[in-house]
Each structure stands twice: as structure tokens, then as C-alpha cells.
Design goal:
binds adenosine-5'-diphosphate; 8-stranded mixed β-sheet
């Protein structure tokens, strides 16, 4: 279980995350939705241990920056950072060795096949198109097969085949009991079988809601997103709990939020 408790992060005067709390249950797929600048990347980078922040983040009860926590956490960044002097296959083997994986060759081949990079094995990082770099970025992140996977805007820059393949792969990981957090600002891109959606805006969690709760209210994710972020029909959200009189703090919560 991943528990984010009261995380606040400032960049100078910018409050990127303001007292953010949520929990990822084991074996669930959570979508982190919000407009640009909502604080999604900041919370993901805090979870993975790249940023200093106030508050607490634990993985199976252990602080996120411990070796034990890092072992089960995986991260697919929005921007690939590849080595220009390593080929595709060298990137994959480098990661496999860094994670002390054994018998990784079949897994590397499977990922490169699925994301159509098998014929690019000998290409260097800086010889790949942007889309190919994104696909290698994905293959690198998926290679160690972590129990908890954080993906920051994973569909951006991918071609239709890779988008379909990644969605299939996400569904397979879900069935295998992986815990996933996928951030995006594009509502249409999350038509996969997510279990929970967390909507962030201006550094705060504005809604934390399960799929049955949305469907039970006869609404779509898009309806909820605009109700929450633009205040449309906000009095009509049957499961909302206003926190204080200031609407900017209003948050829609699911039962288990
Ligand atoms: P999102 O991922 O939802 O688009 P971010 O977490 O990237 O949002 O950004 C949240 C806020 O923090 C934005 O106002 C952004 O400009 C600011 N921010 C993010 N990273 C930095 C940084 N390294 N330095 C200064 N400001 C930052």
C-alpha cells in the first residue's frame, strides 16, 4: 500500500502541492487527473523520492526513500532521459543489471517486440525519433516489473499502436495485481479500467472517487472533472463533502478516501 500523507511542496513562492493526501490500495489502478500545473508531476516525483517535501509518504509502511520501498517502486517519467551513446539494447541491459535481474533476455525481447523497437536494438539513444524515445522510456520503466508503478503522462507522444499496446499492458498488470498510478491531463486517454480517480487542481486534491461512485451517480469522468475544476453543477454532486465555506477547498470524496 502507498500512503501519501499531508504532502506539501513549494518551489520558491509556488505552492506546487498543498497538503496532498491519498492512498493507493494494492492491486488497483488509480488515475491522477488534473489540468497542466495542477501538481501531478510534483506529487509523483515526491513519491519516487526525487524531491524534498513536507509530510510523509510510505510504501507498505516504510518511508519511500528507504531501500526496501525503492525496490517495489517503479517510475516512468514524462520526459525520457536516454544516454546518447548507448543503443536501445544497451539501455535495456544496463537497467536489467542495475536491478540485478536474472534471465532478463526474454523479457527484454518481449517488451521490444510489443512496443515495436525490436528492429531498433542497435540504434543509439540520439538516433531515435521522439516517439521511439518515448517507447524506449516505457520499456525501461516496465523492465524491472515493479509492484507499484507510477506513470507520468505515459501516453504522450506515442503512436496509435503503442497507445493500444500500453493500454493492453496496463490491463495485464492490473490483472497481475500491480498497483498503478497514472497521471494525465487528457480525460479521453483514461478509458481503461481504472478503479479510482484523484482530481488535482492548483496543488490540492479536489476529488477522490471510485468508478462505481461515478457510475452510480449516472455521470462520466468528464462530468465529474468539470464539476470539480470549473464548479459546474457542484451542488449536484451527490457524494461531495464541502470542506469549509471556501469553494476552493471543496473536495469530492469517495467512501474510502
Ligand atoms: P502538472 O504535472 O500537474 O502539470 P507540476 O507538478 O509539473 O504540474 O507543476 C505544479 C506547479 O509547480 C506549477 O505551477 C509549476 O510551474 C511548478 N513547478 C513544477 N516544477 C517546478 C520547478 N522545478 N521549479 C519551479 N516551479 C516548478
Amino acid at each position: 500500500m502507498l500512503e501519501i500523507n499531508g504532502v506539501t511542496k513549494k518551489f520558491g513562492k509556488t505552492l506546487a502541492c498543498d497538503n496532498v493526501s491519498f492512498t493507493l490500495q494494492p492491486g488497483s489502478l488509480t488515475v491522477l487527473l488534473g489540468p497542466n500545473g495542477a501538481g501531478k508531476s510534483t506529487i509523483i516525483k515526491s513519491i519516487i523520492g526525487f524531491l524534498k517535501y513536507q509530510g510523509s509518504i510510505t510504501v507498505n509502511g516504510m518511508p519511500n526513500k528507504t531501500v526496501q520501498a525503492r525496490r517495489v517502486l517503479g517510475y516512468i517519467p514524462e520526459m525520457p532521459s536516454l544516454y546518447p551513446n548507448l543503443t536501445v539494447i544497451e539501455h535495456m541491459e544496463f537497467i536489467a543489471r542495475a536491478y540485478k535481474m536474472t534471465n532478463y533476455k526474454d523479457r527484454i525481447q518481449m517488451l521490444l517486440d510489443r512496443f515495436e523497437l525490436a528492429d531498433k536494438k542497435k540504434k543509439f539513444g540520439d538516433e531515435l525519433s521522439k516517439g521511439m524515445q518515448q517507447k524506449l522510456n516505457l520499456c525501461i520503466g516496465l523492465l524491472p516489473d515493479p509492484d507499484i508503478i507510477l506513470m507520468d503522462e505515459p501516453l504522450l507522444g506515442l503512436d496509435p499502436h503503442a497507445i493500444k499496446e500500453l493500454k493492453n499492458y496496463i490491463e495485464e498488470m492490473r490483472q497481475a495485481g500491480k498497483t498503478m498510478l497514472i497521471s494525465t491531463h487528457i480525460i479521453d486517454s483514461v478509458d481503461m479500467l481504472w478503479d479510482r480517480t484523484i482530481i488535482m487542481q492548483k496543488g490540492t486534491v479536489r476529488a477522490n472517487i471510485t468508478r462505481p461512485e461515478i457510475e452510480g451517480a449516472g455521470k462520466t469522468l468528464e462530468d465529474i472533472f468539470f464539476e470539480v475544476t470549473e464548479g459546474i453543477e457542484k451542488d449536484d454532486v451527490s457524494h461531495s463533502e464541502a470542506e469549509g465555506s471556501d469553494n476552493s477547498n471543496e473536495q469530492v470524496k469517495g467512501e474510502n478516501a
